[in-house]
Amino acid sequence: MPQLGTITYGITKMAFQRLHEQLVVEVDGMQVQIAEVLPGVVDTEGLWEHVKLAKEHRLPHVSYFDQVQKEGKIFSAEFAAKFLKFVLVDTESEEFSKVWNIHDSEHWQRWKTM
User: How many angstroms separate the CA atoms of 72 and 43, rounded?
Assistant: First the structure.
């Protein structure tokens, strides 16, 4: 959603989504696999610096970060890396080419216990 103070993030996120969609079309019929990975909100220094600045400027998306934190949906870098390893290394080639969302519980049992 477009929100005040998120122009660079929003444009970059949409560019990567479009890149994924375009690559899927461009490599159709080739032996190339394309996947999009959505690792969720990851607990990094950059995240907390952004939240701090957003709070200082009273930007509307601060409530989003408060909500995901309350719901326990801010993941450690190690947890996100475990998910990325699962997608990149541990999935079978037949299932790789799709959108992988860390919140999709369909595949949790396969990587959360690794």
Answer: 11
**CATH class of the 7-111 domain in this structure:** alpha beta
- Beta-carbon contacts of residue 9 (< 8 Å; ≥ 6 apart): none
Angle at 62 between CA 60 and CA 67, to 5 degrees: 120
Q: What is d(CA 66, CA 51) in angstroms, rounded to the nearest whole number?
A: 9
Q: Which residues contact 20 (CB under 8 A, 6 or more apart)?
A: 34, 35, 36, 99
Distance (Å, whole) CA 42 – CA 71:
14
Burial of 83 per CB tally in 10 Å (0-12, 13-18, 19+): buried
Model confidence pTM above 0.85: no
List pLDDT tens digits, range 27-61: 999 989 999 999 999 999 999 998 999 999 898 88
